[in-house]
Amino acid sequence: MAEKFISLVGGMHTEKQATTVSAGAADAGKVVGLDSGGLIDPSLLPSNVGSDASRSILAFEDLVSGNYVNIFEDTGVTKVRKADATNGRLALGFVKSGATAGAVATVFTYGVNNQHVGLLSGVPMFLSITTPGAGTSVVPTGTGNLSQMLGYSLSQTEVLFEFNPFVTLA
After folding, report:
1. What are the CA-CA distances from residue 79 to residues 29, 53, 99 (Å)?
2. How far apart are CA 154 and CA 113, in angstroms?
3. CA-based Rg of the chain, rounded to a whole angstrom?
4. pLDDT tens-digit profile of 36-95?
């Protein structure tokens, strides 16, 4: 239950309760309160906040769920392929579902990639230099390879992805 506050209504002090779930425009201007979990309900946020940003992009090659992907232009068409630290294809997003070459893939440009197994929580994850499209907790090495942090593992199956700068290793 949200905390209560005193508001001036018609010249009288009135006790009110903060809004924890929005009904839309009818709740414009109301005070926001945290829900029972101590969080702001997604209904109180703009539609592009708090959820994974996704794009529908044509797959250049076969992708499997959880792949980190590189977005590029191929003869004037935006396409997506596996990110690869060995050839400069930095990770710009990830897929939660596989897609075959030529099909449309849903690419998430930030958010939780929940398609992993066997991770340790709170560990930095990097773009793999051994497996295209994969993430790893092993810090990249090797001249010419990219060192790009993908985010942090949240659990055994989840990585919080956000685009990070990369370094080409010397």
Report:
1. 42, 17, 12
2. 10
3. 21
4. 777 787 777 776 565 557 899 999 999 999 999 999 999 999 999 999 999 999 999 999
Place of tokens 């990110």: 83
Nearest C-alpha neighbor of 18 from the set 31, 28, 36, 7: 31
Stated pTM of the model: 0.72
Q: How far apart are CA 162 and CA 53, in angstroms?
A: 11
Boundaries of every domain in the chain:
4-44, 52-170
Tell me 63's DSSP state.
B
Q: Which residues contact 108 (CB under 8 A, 6 or more apart)?
A: 52, 53, 54, 93, 94, 95, 96, 161
Closest of 93, 96, 81, 80 to residue 158, by C-alpha: 96
For the purposes of burial, counting CB atoms within 10 Å of the CB of 103, is it exposed (0-12), middle (13-18) or buried (19 or more)? exposed
Q: Which two tokens stand for residue 10?
A: 């018609």
Cβ atoms 69, 86 nearer than 8 A: no
Is residue 35 a contact partner of residue 51, using CB atoms and an 8 Å limit? no
